[in-house]
Amino acid sequence: xxxxxxxxxxxxxxxxxxxxxxxxxxxxxxxxxxxxxxxxxxxxxxxxxxxxxxxxxxxxxxxxxxxxxxxxxxxxxxxxxxxxxxxxxxxxxxxxxxxxxxxxxxxxxxxxxxxxxxxxxxxxxxxxxxxxxxxxxxxxxxxxxxxxxxxxxxxxxxxxxxxxxxxxxxxxxxxxxxxxxxxxxxxxxxxxxxxxxxxxxxxxxxxxxxxxxxxxxxxxxxxxxxxxxxxxxxxxxxxxxxxxxxxxxxxxxxxxxxxxxx
Length: 262
Description:
Blueprint lengths: L2 E4 L2 E4 L4 E4 L29 E3 L6 E4 L3 E4 L3 E10 L4 E7 L9 E4 L4 E4 L2 E9 L2 E6 L2 H8 L14 H4 L4 H9 L7 E5 L4 E3 L5 E8 L4 E8 L2 E9 L4 E4 L2 E8 L3 E6 L6
Antiparallel strand pairs: 1-2, 2-3, 4-11, 5-12, 6-7, 7-8, 8-9, 10-11, 11-12, 13-20, 14-15, 15-16, 16-17, 18-19, 19-20
């Protein structure tokens, strides 16, 4: 099984299992120092980063966001928990939040049904969940080529944003800096837009605490909300893996990781 070392992470096989050698996984600890009122930093995710293996043509649903699926339905990755040895994801039906939606707590191997369409959970990561459609018809619909590789704006970009089509994913990946390079997302309301319809914003920024949030939108759907990111944390955007390289008072810098999608 091939291994690639990426900035202190070990990427193992097709499952993209990232093992943090020194990322400080586990609850943060500290002393308030003077007995005054302080704000406790967010508790670190205990890991593991990923459990299960992602099929090459799997549906990647990003943390905090939604994904439109064939049949007019969708799914959201609403939350996750880990205990150091396993990881569970909370999935919610529909591409956007609405009252009364069903939720499931799932691990790899679980099956869910969305508007009569069945999916198997193949991988649960801190930053994504990968689903595999049970029917060939749904798999074919997800892999269908979009009419154009250029963004038209809004919901018209759905075929570019919610797809497993290799050409569309390559077009999205080509819109980012090359592997090893850094992508900066500016705070204070700045929006970073990409050719296939994806847009990024900094949702929160606390340089003193060393934490930030990054949100992504595509085809009028929030496709990811990564909260309480720290330097070294992984996140996925447009089928491409990044890690947080630096958090400043003005921006969040992301390094494109030199590792395969799967």
